[in-house]
Specification:
By secondary structure, this protein is α/β, with parallel strands linked by helices. The model has no long low-confidence stretch (mean pLDDT 94). It is globular. The strands form 2 sheets. A 6-stranded mixed sheet has the order 1-2-3-5-7-9, with helices on both faces. Strands 4-6-8 form a 3-stranded parallel sheet. Helix 1 packs parallel to helix 3. The chain contains 11 helices and 9 strands.
């Protein structure tokens, strides 16, 4: 599952439980509940940091749960259900009224990578952990909102090709060079500390959360449209 801890203007969302943090319906619903709590308690200068315990940041969708349904049709139904409800997690993060930071302390595979990429800033380990889109290896196609998110967040077409069409496993320093993550650090503790330092800089700007969310949506129009996130007019509060 996950926990949320409020430390001043910081919200720390931590994926807990087993090492894989597979995105099952129960974990997805737990994340949605946590994000709802964060939104309800947000102040004008809030920041969300998402991290995890264990080897994985997240090992993607809970395919073992889907396959446990028995028949192919039942497994497909379960997988489609996970895909649909996880879309709400991405939508919540893209529209959250505060800056968001993913502190990737372990492997982030498939939907776990997508979860990380839904944040504004990504910080990961250089000593352990990879980013990896494994759908080709599993024989799965990608949901439309996955592709819209990747096209919105990764500027290099070559990096996109290698991630999506080669299933390349990308470590921290390579991910920095490819423009996927902001920085890489040599330990779990240093990743979290770097996320906190960045968060302190962002909190210090004292931005209006609603304005921040609207500008983020306008920065990424393709994913916002796919997620059904309409823009809205915001009054100019500081002029």
């Amino acid at each position: 599952m996950c926990t949320v801890e409020k430390r001043g203007n910081f919200f720390i969302l931590t994926l807990t439980g087993d090492d894989d943090h597979r995105l099952s319906p129960s974990l997805i619903n737990s994340i949605l509940k946590a994000l709802s709590q964060v939104k309800a308690q947000a102040s004008p200068a809030s920041v969300l940091i998402t991290t995890s315990h264990g080897k994985f940041f997240s090992n993607g969708f809970d395919l073992p749960w889907a396959l446990a349904a028995g028949s192919v049709s039942a497994a497909r139904h379960r997988l489609n259900h996970i895909i649909e409800i996880f879309k709400s997690v991405v939508a919540e993060l893209i529209s959250l009224p505060m800056p968001t930071i993913a502190a990737i302390t372990g492997h982030a595979a498939a939907a776990g990578f997508t979860l990380a990429l839904s944040h504004d800033y990504l910080i990961m380990r250089s000593d352990r952990g990879v980013l990896y889109m494994r759908e080709l290896d599993l024989g799965l196609t990608l949901p439309d909102y996955f592709m819209a998110l990747f096209k919105s967040k990764i500027g290099s077409s070559l990096a996109m090709r290698d991630l999506i069409l080669r299933g390349m496993k990308v470590r921290g320093e390579a991910a920095v060079r490819m423009g996927i993550v902001d920085s890489a650090h040599h330990s779990e503790v240093s990743v979290v500390n770097a996320a906190v330092r960045l968060g302190e800089q962002l909190v210090g700007r004292n931005w209006d959360g609603e304005v921040y969310a609207e500008i983020r949506k306008s920065l990424y129009p393709e994913i916002s449209e796919v997620l059904g996130l309409p823009g809205k007019a915001i009054s100019i509060s500081k002029l």
